[in-house]
Design goal:
By secondary structure, this protein is mainly beta. Helix content is 14%, strand content 47%. It is globular, with a radius of gyration of 23 Å. The chain starts with a helix and ends with a strand.
Length: 306
């Protein structure tokens, strides 16, 4: 007769073996993606990045898509980038993909662009070398929404720009842009603790769907913006929606409100609200901010018609 204790111990052993196998397969997939490369595949880099260079980098992103080289499914980023006023002859361009705590840097190879010297009327800066293509292994990345940065190494050093471009990695697929997700958030009374500015309200196409872009900055007065969760709120007479946002740095907000003595760098947000997810009506736009210790809600004077 098998005792209950023996049966329980055997079940626990099987569970541990199963978990170990899952962890092994996950690590094996990572090794597979990183070690078994194909021709022209980008390398996952480990490098120290410089401070952001701002507007010194000129760029254009022509394509963000899925592709295949031989047997391997890869993501593809194609475009051009150069440092304004500097030769692109020896450019080396890197793609930086950042999402929360995840950051991936991939190198690229030169894609000759004879159109760039003509477009920018520069014949002496070797802008034909400013084109790039990066084929990267999607299996090395966690699922999520990533902001695209461009890092250029040239004769004068390293230069970095975080672009307004985003991509979504989901179930081994890459999509240009992102769609905000509706969230279930308990409604609280409106408060007066938020300072915010809605700077952009535009129609857009994201992942093949009609969307509305809402972009700006927001923070709770009196505390650092680091670690904030910001939601866009849409309220009509009959419905209320909360949509998540992607955060990005707005150092100029901290500089403008320097007299308050807090860090508001992480106050920037952007949201792409899927239009099919919202019932027809007129909506006031609000901002909801959640921190570990506080929850604040404020409605602005901006409205949207769906």
């Amino acid at each position: 007769m098998i005792s209950a204790h023996s049966s329980s111990r055997r079940w626990l052993t099987h569970l541990c073996i199963a978990l170990a196998f899952i962890l092994y397969m996950a690590s094996a997939d990572f090794v597979f993606e990183r070690v078994l490369t194909v021709e022209n595949e980008s390398h996952l880099m480990e490098m120290e990045l410089p401070k952001e260079s701002g507007g010194t980098i000129k760029f254009g992103i022509d394509d963000i898509s899925n592709t295949k080289i031989m047997w391997k499914d890869l993501g593809k980023i194609k475009g051009w980038a150069f440092v304004a006023g500097e030769s692109a002859r020896n450019n080396k361009t890197f793609m930086l993909l950042t999402s929360g705590n995840h950051a991936y840097i991939f190198d690229s190879f030169t894609d000759l662009r004879g159109d760039l010297p003509r477009t920018f009327n520069e014949s002496d800066l070797f802008l034909e070398n400013a084109g790039f293509i990066s084929f990267f292994a999607k299996g090395l990345m966690e699922d999520g929404i990533y902001r695209l940065g461009i890092c250029i190494k040239n004769d004068s050093g390293m230069h970095l720009l975080y672009t307004p471009q985003y991509l979504t990695k989901e179930k081994q697929k890459i999509y240009r842009g992102f769609l905000s997700r509706e969230k279930s958030v308990p409604l609280i009374p409106e408060t007066d603790g938020i300072l915010t500015s809605i700077e952009v309200i535009n129609s857009s196409i994201e992942r093949g769907e009609d969307a509305t872009e809402i972009k700006g900055w927001a923070f709770i007065d009196g505390i650092d913006a680091t670690g904030n969760c910001i939601y866009v709120v849409l309220k009509s007479e009959h419905r209320i929606y909360f949509f998540d946002t992607v955060l990005y740095k707005r150092k100029e907000v901290t500089q403008y409100f320097h007299y308050k003595g807090f860090n508001f760098d992480h106050s920037g947000f952007t949201s792409h609200v899927p239009q099919k997810s919202v019932e027809k009506g007129i909506y006031r736009i609000g901002i909801y901010i959640e921190t570990p210790d506080r929850k604040e809600l404020k409605f602005t004077d901006k409205t949207l018609v769906f």
